[in-house]
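agent> step 3/5: call structure_predict on target 'Histidine--tRNA ligase' (Streptomyces gilvosporeus).
agent> reason: downstream docking stage needs a structural representation; sequence fetched in step 2, passing through unchanged.
tool.input:
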Amino acid sequence: MSTFQAPKGTYDLLPPDSATYLAVREAIAGPLKNSGYGYIETPGFENVELFARGVGESTDIVTKEMYAFETKGGDRLALRPEGTASVLRAALEANLHKGGNLPVKLWYSGSYYRYERPQKGRYRHFSQVGAEAIGAEDPALDAELIILADQAYRSLGLRNFRILLNSLGDQECRPVYRAALQDFLRGLDLDDDTRRRVDINPLRVLDDKREYVQKQLTGAPMLRDYLCEACKAYHEQVRELLTAAGVAFEDDEKLVRGLDYYTRTTFEFVHDGLGSQSAVGGGGRYDGLSEMIGGPALPSVGWALGVDRTVLALEAEGIALDIPAATSVYAVPLGDEARRVLFGAVTELRRAGVATDFAYGGKGLKNAMKSANRSGARLALVAGERDLAEGVVQLKDLTSGEQTPVALDAVVDEVRRALG
Ligand code: AMP
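tool.output (status=ok):
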């Protein structure tokens, strides 16, 4: 062990488990790539104001969890705690919305940072794959994103997840509801922090998990009763499209989510095998965000799915992904001349697209064969001086133990044939 350890709240992804993480990322990205979403990558840090304005001054993410710092040049930056604000910033900066081809559909994959109290499923560094559809107000777009996330989870074999759905209203009906909710909340017995939250973002009080708060919320006005006709109709269409697609969901009137920028459709994917950190992904519509960060009106919708928690969900359901062995062929040279010749064959095989590895470090036969078996390879190529004198190498099937000599210049063809 070295003197150093991974920082608190972080962990390293190591083989072979790391292959599952890659597979999860790919499984989530697959349906997006297949549906008109283009890949976007933005910096790991941004101007801290982008998040303060974009995510919301009153959110835990901004007030408590941001890794904010000042650079030597005096810039105030923060490690990104989430993806949406950065993606929208980048799209606006590059004028992607001006081509007349809306919505701009983008997907991303990367590391995010929040200074949280670490526990299982909650880390200070975590991975998300996300998608944003910028610049269109269309219930089919909201439905599309939910359907694609559902498809991704199902393609991984996950079954014990649920989709929670709600509408948060728009700039017309939400303020009326907000005022009614504030009236109600101000009559409750709440601590100072929560009372401040009532002033700044009362909807989030509904999301408070503490029992003494939840107990007092019975009888609170519900947003459903305040939604304007346009929001109701919009939400009904999203629900109908999901139902027609065979995607089951639960209406959850209390779902508000932790970020300030959501409007109308909001949703969360929860997995029932994860204990307290049950949200594997979530998202919603954020029609006002562009204007909040200085852009034009661009109604948009998006989601982010957590890779770490999706992997935990797979474990909870006992699902082992079918990940092909990284190596198909393992080459074992016996002696210096064999080393030179086999290394050449390895290079040739790799160029032909066959996953091949080599016994480095001058291992003896026994050790080298152990490594070959551990690599998961189906075939070994073994050669000693006598083989080379005859112009052959031995092709060994590591499952049956069967061994056949093959001509040196036919190695690629013979290996391909043996692998099927
Ligand atoms: P949020 O932006 O908070 O809605 O997060 C979207 C998804 O990212 C969540 O559903 C989680 O799967 C994942 N996520 C958020 N925060 C963390 C964290 N601290 N550790 C691990 N995963 C997280």
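agent> step 4/5: record observation. The mean pLDDT is 94.
agent> proceeding.
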